[in-house]
Design brief:
With 163 residues, this protein is mainly beta. It contains two helices and twelve strands. Strand 11 and strand 12 form a beta hairpin. It is globular, with a radius of gyration of 20 Å.
Length: 163
């Protein structure tokens, strides 16, 4: 395994916040990637789950906007989350028990990171309202919108049961 602090001709992968004020890069490939279904990540991202890419801290660099990064420390959880103070984009998730790692939301990268999110953290906290790959169909009259069409057979069965 390569030395995580070695930077000899390593390729970089760039990322940024929504407004573009904060920019960063990591050496390619990332260390690992995962989906985090835990409550704290759901609240921090306002989403069903957050997908992160982990990098060695020494292989992560802020290339612009360092002064525009705000930090929230959750002492009880032993974690810190950083975000852009201009647009609010979540930028980093750091844990005290892994001081040599930084975790970055996967969606912030402009290209591949060299790791696919194969792992699920806190899967026991998975939300029943999250999309799980059901068949989607176009919504008539609304280009670009798809929806989960109710199964007509199931609907008829319900009607029979409640008669």
């Amino acid at each position: 395994m390569p030395n995580p602090s070695a930077r000899s001709n390593a390729a970089q992968v760039a990322g940024q916040c929504l407004c573009g004020t904060v920019r960063f890069e990591i050496d390619y490939p990332a260390r690992w990637a995962w989906h985090d279904h835990g409550r704290a990540s759901r609240l921090a991202h306002g989403a069903a789950y957050a997908t992160y890419v982990g990098s060695w801290r020494k292989r992560f660099r802020i290339t612009a906007g360092k002064r525009d990064i705000a930090r929230y420390e959750d002492k009880a959880a032993g974690a810190a989350r950083s975000f852009c103070r201009r647009c609010g984009t979540p930028l980093l998730y750091e844990r005290a028990r892994a001081p040599h790692m930084v975790n970055i939301p996967r969606a912030l990268f402009v290209s591949r990171t060299g790791r696919q999110p194969l792992y699920h953290v806190a899967i026991d906290e998975f939300q029943d309202w999250a999309y799980t790959g059901e068949r989607l169909v176009p919504l008539k009259g609304f280009p670009g919108i798809v929806w989960e069409r109710p199964n007509r057979k199931k609907g008829l069965d319900r009607i029979r049961v409640f008669r």
